[in-house]
Amino acid sequence: MAAIPTRGTLIRAMATLLLIRHGENEYTRTGKLAGWTPGVRLNEAGQKQAQSLIERLKGAPIKRLYSSPLERAQETAAPLAAALGLPVEIRPALGEVRYGDWTGKSLKRLARTKLWRVVQGLPSVMQFPQGETMRGAQLRVVDALDEIARAYPKAMVAVFSHSDPIKMAVAYYLGMPLDLFQRIQISTGSVSVLRLGQGQPSLVKLNDTGALALPR
């Protein structure tokens, strides 16, 4: 019989992923669904959130930086990348959900539609008009995170993405049904920390917006 790995062995084999939501922009401030709209950039508050990551993550042994291709995510990553002297590697699979015809519309307006009840109550069967399914979005994000964790099994990696993709990834690794993922809150500029690799996935922090005491 093979020896059972010790707790220490499992920890050494785990990648630590910092899932960072982009900073505030005028879409998040006014309650509109940006989706893949090009040219959505951080506002002043969002720029401050991006800059604050330098101090919040000071001393963290981050080895790689990955980002959604959307401008607001790349702009959030840029100050930390400059401080660490690391490039930002773009992964399209880390991008926002493709909301199709919902893109650019206000959440208040969308909340009056019949499909809104599906998004909130049964997202596992939701396909956005002219967009993707929520199950498909969850799968692509999880596949990207798994690939990163396999590539850097003992490293700390920062991943810049969006609210729904992060929420769906956290739900997946917690074993939570997709239909319950809306119970998770992910704020602009927040950091959530997952450990992935050998053994059970571990959620170390969720939606942290303050000073971070990160695992080593």
In short:
The chain has 216 residues and is of the alpha/beta class.
Structure notes:
This protein has a single domain, classed as 3-Layer(aba) Sandwich (Rossmann fold), CATH 3.40.50.1240. 37% of the residues lie in helices and 17% in strands. It is built from eight helices and six strands. The protein has helices spanning 7-12, 26-30, 44-56, 71-84, 107-110, 114-121, 134-151, 163-173, and strands at residues 14-21, 62-67, 88-90, 156-161, 191-197, 202-208. Strands 3-2-4-1-5-6 form a six-stranded mixed β-sheet, with helices on both faces. The protein is globular.
Q: Which architecture does the CATH hierarchy give at level 2?
A: 3-Layer(aba) Sandwich
Secondary-structure-based class equals: alpha/beta
The number of helical runs is 8
Summarize the helix and strand pattern as letters. Answer: HEHHEHEHHHEHEE
Computed Rg: 17 Å
Write the layout of secondary structure elements.
Elements: H1 7-12, E1 14-21, H2 26-30, H3 44-56, E2 62-67, H4 71-84, E3 88-90, H5 107-110, H6 114-121, H7 134-151, E4 156-161, H8 163-173, E5 191-197, E6 202-208
Parallel strand pairs: 1-4, 2-3, 2-4
Antiparallel strand pairs: 1-5, 5-6
Distinctive features:
disordered N terminus, 216 residues, alpha/beta, Rossmann fold
